[in-house]
Amino acid sequence: MRSRPSSTLLADIRALPFADNYFDFVYDTCLYQIPDSDIDQAMQELHRVVKYGICLQAVTNQKQLFDSVQSSHSAQECSERFLRNGFQLAINEPQVLNKVWKWEKKITAGETWYPTRESMRYCFYTKQENIRLPLMTELILRTASHLLS
């Protein structure tokens, strides 16, 4: 595994200080930390800075993290917003979803963060219409591996 930079940058998700397509893949945990009225603007900004896709990780079992939640949406509502802001569901192929679910169960020793295999579809989005299936699978699995490392 490549080493990751150790620095952290604090920035407004509605106006990120990065060039277009700066990141291959974005792992987002903050969309629910901003007011509902700002989420579309933030999603548009994420769309601008990402080259391939995004992993929305808004799942937590840590009660203290709920204190800063300013908006909450069902998976379907959130998905509709991502779609409206230029993203597409990244996992449309059953074989990719099966592989991601199997991998999720393996790395979590069966205690997954997700209630069902299908619910994982609503965590991964892409802005590339013709992204190659092996590349998207690799990006999703690489991102998922960092979730628990």
SSE string, helices as H and strands as E: EHEHEHEH
List segments where confidence is low: pLDDT < 50 over at least 5 consecutive residues.
Answer: 60-65
Outline the biggest β-sheet. Answer: 4 strands, mixed
Give the overall pLDDT as a whole number.
Answer: 76
Question: What is the overall silhouette?
Answer: globular
How many helical elements? 4
Please estimate the helix content: 25-40%
**How is the largest sheet built, in terms of strand order?**
1-2-4-3
Proportion of β residues? 5-15%
Judged by helices, strands and strand pairing, the structural class is alpha+beta
Task: Determine Rg (CA atoms, Å).
Answer: 15 Å
> Can you count the beta strands?
4
What distance lies between the first and last C-alpha atoms, to the nearest angstrom?
11 Å
Structural description of this entry:
By secondary structure, this protein is α+β, with helices and mostly antiparallel strands. 34% of the residues lie in helices and 12% in strands. The protein is built from four helices and four strands. The chain has helices spanning 39-49, 75-84, 94-107, 133-147; strands at residues 23-28, 50-56, 88-89, 124-126. A four-stranded mixed sheet has the order 1-2-4-3, with helices on both faces. Strand 1, helix 1 (39-49) and strand 2 (50-56) form a beta-alpha-beta unit. Helix 3 packs parallel to helix 4 (133-147). The radius of gyration is 15 Å and the shape is globular. Residues 60-65 have low confidence and may be disordered.
